[in-house]
Every structure is written in structure tokens, then in C-alpha cells.
Amino acid sequence: MDSTAIAIMGASGRMGQMLIEIVNASDKAHLIAVTERAGHEWVGRDLGEAMGGAKTGVPVCDDPLDAIVKAQAVIDFTSPAATLAHAKLTAQARCVHVIGTTGMDEDEIAQLEPCARHATIIRAGNMSLGVNLLVKLTQQVAAALDEDFDIEVVEAHHRHKVDAPSGTAFMLGEAAAEGRNVSLADVADRGRDGITGARKRGDIGFTAIRGGDVVGEHDVIFAADGERIVLRHLATDRAIFARGALKAALWGQGKGPGQFDMMDVLGL
To answer: SS3 breakdown of the chain: % helix, strand, coil, rounded to 5?
Structure first.
């Protein structure tokens, strides 16, 4: 069958359910397995019935290895700890691992490197085409403007998001820092509160907004005396992230071991 077998980690979450819908609607991929954490009410049930529909023949399991060994690609929007555990298993299975998990720190990201010697890992803070174009534009604009322009990354998400700033905000901050040929760790300005003093020249600031059901909004503001440039991306449908993740899973077929991102997938 000319169709890629996909396993989805974390089936019951918002992204998990959206990924299931996108894969089921695809003529290039099919769902082979899904997982949930041990003790979750979905474990042991048919996926379709757990989602309130007809049987699909795909059971929800709590053993990631059992799901991964069946799959050609794993799509993972879970938690940093779970993703690292999954990465060790995908390395053993030599399958494609698409990681959309956010909130991973530098140490956790570094732990993916040994796994990427054996598996194709595609990791991005945001899987949408539009956001990745915004990242590229941010880098180019930052490279063209000097430090007379302050840079601020402003992001907004729904009230349930647990990490801040968002993974996409960090992608944009990294792009701006790369454009200026500096390390983001040296110039990031986060967590302003109280008497902070004047803004430091060259800093890249981050502001996070949480509320309602906002899917995702990101602005990169370049502000100088007398003028501002604002680059913006608005996401209104979570399906854009699922479609991007599936595109990455399909692109990764036949690629050798290594770490890739959506820029590679999209050829940007």
C-alpha cells in the first residue's frame, strides 16, 4: 500500500485529535497506532469510540514502543519528558520522529542529538507554513536593521497553554538574533515586572498573552524613533499545525538520520 503508517502520541489532546482527523483524511498516510498515558480513560478502548464515533479498529495503547515499532513515522505533540522518552524508542526503531512539543529547554533539546544519529528527527516550535515564512522574514529584517530598532516578540495563546513564551516566539527570537549575528541567550529580555529600568540597546524582548481560545498570534515588532515595522501571523485553525506535521512525516520518508526542521521540509 502506497501509504505511510503514522503513530500519534497523546491521542486525547487537542492536537492529538486534530492530527487523527488530518491523517484519516489523507490519501498519503494512514493511522497505525495511537497512545495515551497509563491510566488514561481512553487506554484499551477503540480510538473511534473513545472520540465519540464509530469503531476504527485502532486501539488506544499506553505502551509507546508497541506503537512506534508499527510505524514509519511518529508524530509527537506531548510533553518534553515524554518526547525524550519517545525519541530513544524512535532511534531504536529507525523511524521518522516529528516533534511539535513545545517548552523544551536547551538541555532537553541537546538530549535529542544522540537519537538523531539513528533516526530522522524533524523538530519545530511551529509546523505552519505561514509561521516558517515569518521566521525567515524576521531573520532578513533583523539583518537589514541595526540596533536603533528595538525588537519585541509578542505572542498570544489560549488560557490552557502551559508554557511561555511559546515555542514559536523562541523561533522568532532565534531568527532575529541570527539576523543580528548574536546569541539569543545573551540578549533575550523576558519577565519584565516592577522598576526594570530603561530597555537595554540590542535586547530582544518577549511578551506573552494568555486568554480565551486564541489558537496562536505572533507579532515581531521592530521599533525605532518615529517608525515601527510589524510582522504578523494569525492562526485561526489548529489544523494548520497538524497539516504541517503530516507534511513533515511524509517528507522524512527515505531521509537519513539527522535533525531537521520545517525550513528543511519547506525548502526555505
So the answer is: 35, 25, 40
pTM reported for the whole predicted model: 0.82
Average pLDDT, stretch 197-202?
95
Query: What burial letters (b/e) apply to 38-56, b meaning 16+ CB within 10 Å?
Result: eebebbeebbeebbeeeeb
Q: How far apart are the first and last CA of the chain?
A: 31
| Amino acid found at 218 | H
**207 pairs with which residues across the strands?**
154
Q: How many CB atoms lie within 10 A of CB 231?
A: 17
- Per the structure block, which three cell numbers stand in for 210? 494568555
Cα distance between residue 178 and residue 187, in whole Å: 11
Q: How far apart are CA 151 and CA 94, in angstroms?
A: 41
Task: Report d(CA 66, CA 68) in Å as an integer.
Answer: 6
Per the listing, cell 527570537 goes with 173
Catalytically annotated residues: 157, 161
Contact present, 96 and 120 (Cβ < 8 Å): yes
Collect all residues with Cβ–Cβ distance below 8 Å to 98 and sequence separation of at least 6: 73, 74, 75, 76, 122, 123, 245, 248, 249, 252
Position 255 scores a pLDDT of 95
pLDDT at 2: 86
CA-CA distances (angstroms) from residue 45 to 32, 65, 66, 129, 213? 15, 18, 15, 34, 29
- Which residues contact residue 68 at a Cβ distance below 8 angstroms, ignoring those fewer than 6 apart? 7, 33, 74, 86, 89, 90, 93, 95
C-alpha angle with apex 163: 158 to 168, nearest 5 degrees?
80
CA-based nearest residue to 175, from 208, 204, 217 = 204
| Strand 227-235 to 216-224 pairing | antiparallel
